[in-house]
Amino acid sequence: MFGKLDLYIIKKFLGTYFFSIILIITIAVVFDVSEKIDDFIEKDAPFNAIVFDYYMNFIPYFANLFSSLFIFISVIFFTSKLAYNTEIIAILSSGISFNRFLRPYLISATVLALFSFFLNNYIIPPANQTRLAFEEQYIRNQIVNRSHNIHRQILPGQYFYLQSYTVRTKTGYKFTLEQFKDGRLVSKLTSDQLKWDTTLGKWKTSHYYIRNITEEGDEIIKGTQLDTTLNILPEDFERRDNIVEAMNLNELTEFIEKQKMQGAENVVALNVYWHQRFAYPFSAFILTLIGVSLSSRKRRGGIGIQIGVGIALSFSYILFMQVSTNITIGNGYNPFIGSWTPNFIYSIIALFLYKIAPK
């Protein structure tokens, strides 16, 4: 199934990739330590927590974040070296077609794409839970919710409103809960304050007023304090934007559905992030094809020009992906189109470069 050529290229590809990963992660950790050392000292972060809770979980997150870039640089580097040593000319002159030459590259790209997808969706999210918990305790400032006029649909037909909410005290002000049935309002609860009772695990309303609308007439209920169970928790007001990094694919899908039901404003951003879970691993094939097509020709001046062009292309791809994401979120465009447009455009570039590559 695998010949010597396949094993040789796969070994070169994966070896260069993991070597570059280790090298850049080492540099990233050194810079990160120098940046956060003051926070660690100021908040008395334990050494074991810094090493095992933060950096052991930071490394796979950072490596996967720039996986596509490392794949591209690896392909450019070792393929340019093969071309410079005239190994590619010898391979093609022996009767092996360029398509056959590409096979071990695509096998390696498949391995890395599947590895990235599995890491990003099932391994890194639980690791991120530990990392983010460490950041909340020792690095980040306390969460302050500055949202006002919070509207949510917490259950079908049940609408929740708060004029404001304070994270520190877990207290909301000017609370309203409306219940609709068949498009008609059947009950409305209003109160001055809604506070989370940590002992009972329930919400308590203060100075409440309930109006039940029936066919016989309105029923009015008043009181000073009322315990109530709502399909919303204090954590729903305290989540940071990066909380989705700690969710696996199934949890993220369920979270998006819940946010849709509640009418949250971040649904487009969440859908973009969901599509990126698939789009980023797929980019391994595109960047591999671009890298081989660019660097398989021996050029004057050595491999420096090829590496430079390759790095420029890879950074342009990452920049385009980021710009496309921001435009999609900012304008509410289709998340699928926003997430996959860079892959589509660079697929065309890859096919063009493949067509003009020496065969």
The span between the termini is: 23 Å
Helix proportion of residues, in percent?
A: 55-70%
Structural class, from helix and strand content? alpha+beta
Shape: elongated
Written overview of the protein:
The protein is of the alpha+beta class and 359 residues long. The chain has two domains: 227 residues, no CATH class; 90 residues, no CATH class. Helices cover 62% and strands 19% of the residues. Strands 1-2-3-4-5-6 form a six-stranded antiparallel β-sheet. Strand 5 and strand 6 form a beta hairpin. The protein is elongated and about 90 Å long. The two termini are 23 Å apart.
Any key phrases for this structure?
single chain, 359 residues, alpha+beta, 2 domains, 6-stranded antiparallel sheet, 6 strands
Strand-helix topology:
Layout: H1 4-42, H2 47-65, H3 67-84, H4 87-93, H5 98-138, E1 148-155, E2 158-166, E3 171-181, E4 184-197, E5 202-214, E6 217-228, H6 235-238, H7 249-262, H8 267-295, H9 304-331, H10 335-356
Antiparallel strand pairs: 1-2, 2-3, 3-4, 4-5, 5-6
Brief description of this entry?
Helices cover 62% and strands 19% of the residues. The protein has 359 residues and is α+β, with helices and mostly antiparallel strands. It has a six-stranded antiparallel β-sheet with strand order 1-2-3-4-5-6.
